[in-house]
Amino acid sequence: MPEKKRYLRLKLENPKDAQEYIRRLLRNLKERGPDAEIEYLGRISQILSVWLKSYELNKLDEIEKRLAVLERDKENQK
Fold first, then answer.
1. Beta-carbon neighbour count of residue 18 at 10 Å?
2. What's the pTM value of the predicted model, to 2 decimals?
3. Which residues form the domain of 68?
4. Does the pLDDT of residue 70 top 80, yes or no?
C-alpha cells in the first residue's frame, strides 16, 4: 500500500508567521545533524535571507507606527 502524502498547510499572514515557520524548519534540519546542514547549505542561506527580510518588515512596521505617533504629537503641539 503506497504511503499517504502529507500536505503542510501554512498560513503566513505576517512576518512573525514566516519567522516562526523558518525557526521550525531550521530546528528540524539541525536535529538531522551536521551532514544535513552541509547538504542543504544553499537552502539554509536562502531561508535565512527570507527570515531577515521578514525581520526587517516587522521592524519597519514598528518604526512607521512610532513615526505616526510622533507626527501626530507634533501636529497637536502646533
1. 20
2. 0.58
3. 15-77
4. yes
